[in-house]
Amino acid sequence: MVSNLIKLEILKRIRSTSFARSLAIGIFVFFIGIFLLGYLLLLGLVLNKLIREVLGKDDAVVFINSCLLYFFLLELIYRYFIQQLPVISLGSFLHLPLSKSKIIHFLLGSSFISPLNIISLLVFGPFALMEIKPIYGGFPAVIWLAAVILTSWSIHWFILWFKQRFEDSLIGTLAVFTTLLISLGANYFGFYDLGAFFEPVFTFALESPVPIFLLLTLLILSYFLCFAFYRQNAYLEELSEKEHLQFANKNLGFLSKFGLAGEMANLEWKLIIRHKKSRTYLMLCLVFLLYGLIFYNNPAFQSTSGFNHQFIFVGTFITGIFMLQYGQLFLSWNSPAFDFYVHQKNGLKALVRGKYLLFTGISLLCFILSIPYVYFGWNVLLIHLATFLFNIGITIHLVIYLALWKPKPMDLNKGSMFNYEGMGLSQFLMFIPLIAAPYAVFLPFAYLFGDYAGLLAMSITGAFGLLVFRRISTSMAEKVIQNKYEISSAFRQEL
Questions:
Q1: CA-CA-CA-CA torsion for 429, 417, 122, 162, nearest 10 degrees?
Q2: What count of other Cβ atoms lies within 10 Å of the Cβ of residue 220?
Q3: Closest CA to 458 of 315, 330, 292, 345
Q4: CA distance linking residue 326 with residue 332, whole number of Å
Q5: What does pTM read for this prediction?
Q6: Listed residue (171, 168, 193) closest to 183, CA to CA
Q7: I need a surface site. Which of 124, 149, 213, 335 has the fewest CB within 10 A?
Q8: Residue 340: which residues within 8 A CB-CB, separation 6 or more?
Q9: What torsion do the CA atoms of 480, 484, 489, 490 make, to the nearest 10 degrees?
Q10: How high is the pLDDT of residue 132?
């Protein structure tokens, strides 16, 4: 049966009309993945030297054991956003005369074939070989490495259950980030160190194989927790009901005050919260709100006069990350229903203006949430204000103009991360002018008159963009209307 399921999965992929494009993108992503995994292996090879020579720790093994908990918390974060669920495939097999349990075992097993599951081996394998083996011996090194890998694999099954259980709400995201922030914050302010608390668990693995049996039991329990949940909820009607009913009443009522454009913005909001890929972009806004913590309090980025010019880049991302990421697929989000807008009176114009309204509103919300960064200085607040004005006055038009160059269709029901449907060359190259535009205005004035003159120039440029906002947005809408048949024809291609 397994061979038949594998055969069906292969046939589904190679019979797609977009197989050639998907294959080309897959090869590109494969080489990027190999490149990144190579860097992780390089990190593992020099990890012991980094700990001793850079961090100045005498006992690298004790230090790593006290930091492993934070590594696993970080693993929870990147697995939560990157690791894909097998639910879409599940809906393709449930109508077949096959054992439901065997189908779920197959899908869960296939989900385990992922580069994410070898990251812990690449990072800590060389460390165990080069640092632990010479001190403790070969067998303790193998036991310790096995303990680390089993913990990582347990997280794999836990995330499959966790994402499926909480994916349709913000509870999952808030829980994951709250756990990480509380742990890091408590360690930073010296309240308590969770890493040191769990350090004896992995130190014990150097002395006895008992942790292996305990972690193996944890791995099995996490797998069957995941299996039991999928088995219990593996019904086509439940899959469809959860997808369509849970967010049925999630409206932004105040948008109706903006007329038809507001109704389109409200419809776009429903699209965002109902689909995993678009919802991921919204969640990333929360992640990038913390981006400034890396720079604003880092002595390496402080300047004796004015401020570090990299802060312009940070402010642009914090206040405009949603329009930069979600906007690069400007019309691709609506490709399945694009013909509907084409045949409605003023449908396309209202769609474009609704997206403008949504981009501006979320950017304003990001700016408001970033105001507490004033704690690091009033210059940070001025940077965020200037970049916000520039984003909604200039950047928003650049995003939409570049996104209208040969938009591609996209299936919203597919995975959220490492899904490159709708992406073309223009989307990959879009970030270059978008990041360069603020500096093109800021740097000449900052060089001639000072950093704050550069901020003033950015603010004035953004304010001017707001004054001509209606004229430019109308021009963008007319560009969509002018190319509507070409765009519609491209969107009708079967994915």
A1: 160
A2: 12
A3: 315
A4: 10
A5: 0.58
A6: 193
A7: 213
A8: 347
A9: 0
A10: 87
The one-letter amino acid code at 345 reads K
Task: Give the tens place of pLDDT for each residue, 431-461.
Answer: 777 788 899 999 999 888 888 899 999 999 9
- Indicate the DSSP class of residue 302: -
Dist CA 335 CA 251 (whole Å): 22
- What is the Cα–Cα distance from 350 to 344, expressed in whole angstroms? 10
The helix (run of H) or strand (run of E) holding residue 273 is helix 259-274
Q: How far apart are CA 166 and CA 161, in angstroms?
A: 9
Cα–Cα distance, 211 to 202 (Å, whole number): 8
* 8-22 burial code (b ≥16 CB/10 A, e <16): eeeeeeeeeebeebb
The amino acid sitting at 279 is: R
Coil, strand, or helix at residue 297?
Answer: coil
* Pair of tokens at residue 440: 């093109």
| Cβ(180)–Cβ(73) below 8 Å | yes
pLDDT 10s digits, 198-246: 778 788 888 888 888 888 999 999 888 888 887 777 654 444 444 443 4
Q: What is each CA distance from 278 to 170, 179, 219, 350, 432, in whole angstroms?
A: 13, 24, 32, 20, 22
